[in-house]
Amino acid sequence: MPIILQESLRGLLYAPYYAALTLGAYRQEGIEVSFVSAPTPAQAPAGLFAGAVDVAWGGPMRVMQMYETRPDCDLVCFGEVVTRDPFLLVGREPRPDFALADLYGKRVAIVSEVPTPWLCLQEDIRRVGLDPDALPRIADRTMSENAASLRRGEVDVIQVFEPFAEELIAAGAGHIWYAAAKRGPTAYTSFYTRRSTLTARRDELKRMVRGLYRTQKWLYSQPPEALADAVQSFFPDMAAALLRGAVARYRSLG
């Protein structure tokens, strides 16, 4: 029986997970993995509780939220892959001397699809002695909608991940102000499953982790463009050159 693996949303930060699929890393470890997508990020855990999927990937923050809302929650994280915050602040105008205090007085649009980016940015703001609650912000639009608003000049700065940033930069419509990855190690994305599944399919899930390890060894033995080419099929509408640039940016951020 294959392991049904679910993504929460499509994003380049998950490139190692996509690469494990395209490189056949799980098959090489003796397991079959079937890949599906969640209807929305917020609905991703529901598939696990319903028994429709076996393993999902996403932020540990989503798992902690489930423990707050479901008395029967038994989700367990494992197989961490993203250990830097992948989100970027992209502004309309160049600002090489950017400081977080510069956000005040600007039209700021933050991520709405998932909770972790804004929670982490709030902590960065607090660490420089400022109050994130005092920052006016647009918090009810998708990253795609915010990118379009930036192009139209309706906002000054948006919070996005790749490939949105690379597309804006290539079009001359955006400039990177701040890379949250510079904060340092941050447990950002891992597999998660129910504890009952972890017990029942322990050997298979250990093989999944070994498949990830196999992929990571390959990843760090190759130039960034090799990873971009390996995951191109997951981003069919993005030009290869832009995808390679986005992967290279993430690689440079650690």
How would you characterize the overall build of this protein?
This protein is an alpha/beta fold. It folds into two domains: 147 residues, Periplasmic binding protein-like II (D-Maltodextrin-Binding Protein, domain 2, 3-Layer(aba) Sandwich); 96 residues, 3-Layer(aba) Sandwich (D-Maltodextrin-Binding Protein, domain 2). The protein is built from eleven helices and nine strands. The model has no long low-confidence stretch (mean pLDDT 96). The strands form two sheets. Strands 2-1-3-9-4 form a five-stranded mixed β-sheet, with helices on both faces. It has a four-stranded mixed β-sheet with strand order 6-7-5-8, covered by helices on one side. It starts with a strand and ends with a helix. It is globular and about 55 Å long. It is 41% helix and 17% strand.
